[in-house]
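User: Predict structure, ligand flavin-adenine dinucleotide.
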Amino acid sequence: MIETLSSLGCKVLKSEPLSMHCSFKIGGPADFFIEIPNELALSEFLRVISAGRFYILGGGTNVLFSDEGYRGTIVRLTGSFKEISVSEDEILCGGGAMLSDVLKTACKNSLTGLECAAGISGTVGGAVYGNAGRGDKWISAAVKSVEVYKNLKKELISREKAVFDYRKSGFENCIISKVVFSLKKDVKKDSLGEISKNMQKRLETQPLNMPNAGSIFKNPDGFSVGKLIEEASLKGICAGKAQISELHGNFIVNAGGAFAEDVLSLINLIKEKIKEKFGISLEMEIKIIK
Ligand SMILES: Cc1cc2nc3c(=O)[nH]c(=O)nc-3n(C[C@H](O)[C@H](O)[C@H](O)COP(=O)(O)OP(=O)(O)OC[C@H]3O[C@@H](n4cnc5c(N)ncnc54)[C@H](O)[C@@H]3O)c2cc1C
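Assistant: Predicted complex:
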């Protein structure tokens, strides 16, 4: 497998520390870490991996890897999957393109509709998979179609056929290879103003100076998890070098050398206390990868 994929331009790493590939800076080694540069290599990878275990990773900004790492192959899309192009009021991009680059392209071309993506790190694939957004504004509103690889077959799925919901897209077990965003040409709309307001709010309310993976839990209907955690007096609590952020209760930060086990024990503590105090069962937003 290694020779075939290397000959197609893939970068194949063995025993790669996953802490180097996620915003939490936590995680043991993956047996293999493969960067796939184009569709030919992706098709070949899916053929040779066959029933082997693999996981598609974007920017790693919404995941927690285990301390033992991953027994199998972690895959990341690079090369042509990072390309972005504009055609009238549409932006076509690869699943590995950075969301921030897509937003910059939209601004440069006076295209509006992606403002909710401001300050969200990671890739287009990760954002569409998790229907990223802010409040009740989600990236799915701007999606026209998504190209995915599923069971060795390539499919084009329109927004209407996808099952977008809060932090949900229905693209489980798929590799998102391309996305078309349908935007609005609007030179008058103050997109930059809205984007910089979003960014300023993040700077004030999120612990951006410490490694983290964004919101740990989804907000239950009608509640803010951050506020519930604050009301339960859980902010600031530590387990090893992991800490429930003092700034935002729904963030756990790595104060330097935290283990996944530390983060998991804080997650369990929060779940238990919120259930006890408010009768609410919290659902995970971050993906725990073992
Ligand atoms: C400081 C901070 C603030 C954040 N704020 C927000 C916010 O306001 N709103 C929000 O929604 N999120 C937020 N996040 C979380 C995160 O940035 C987003 O969820 C982001 O869209 C994840 O993209 P990623 O490429 O990093 O995905 P990853 O973390 O790499 O992966 C997340 C999931 O997407 C899947 N995935 C990734 N790429 C693909 C692909 N090509 N095909 C299929 N599946 C794929 C993975 O398998 C995994 O299940 C924040 C994170 C941080 C660190």
